């Protein structure tokens, strides 16, 4: 009887701790319970300051929870590395605005020098949950020949580091 009470109390504590708003909003992780999400990066262009801009939409198949977020994974690939590495910057994750959410943003130019050549920026709803990808646009005189965007299957399987904004431009309010 005492053993059942201890097991029940431990289970209840684990459930309460695991589902508390504080743990759901934990800034050290990005996860999702969404299983079906559609989306598209509709256009990519250089703005008047020669920054790469993008816009599009994301639409989960069910109403997202209050702590569900989507964002962009920056994939870089160091020379000689067998696969790309993804980076997500937690403060830049975005809340859904109902079911279909439109977005516009800037690709952060400060990311590339720290993480190797940028091969893709992808719309995602969780690590490995890649929907659509683009290659950043650069001025012709600044650009090295870049490999094509890797296939989505490669990017979905690539490791993703979820981190604070070290190495990004803190003054870029529109960065994705």
Automatic annotation (TrEMBL):
* Keyword Signal carried by entry: yes
Annotated signal peptide: 1-24
What superkingdom heads the lineage? Bacteria
Per UniProt, which keywords does this protein have?
A: Signal
Designated name of the protein:
Secreted protein
Q: Species name for this entry?
A: Phytohabitans houttuyneae
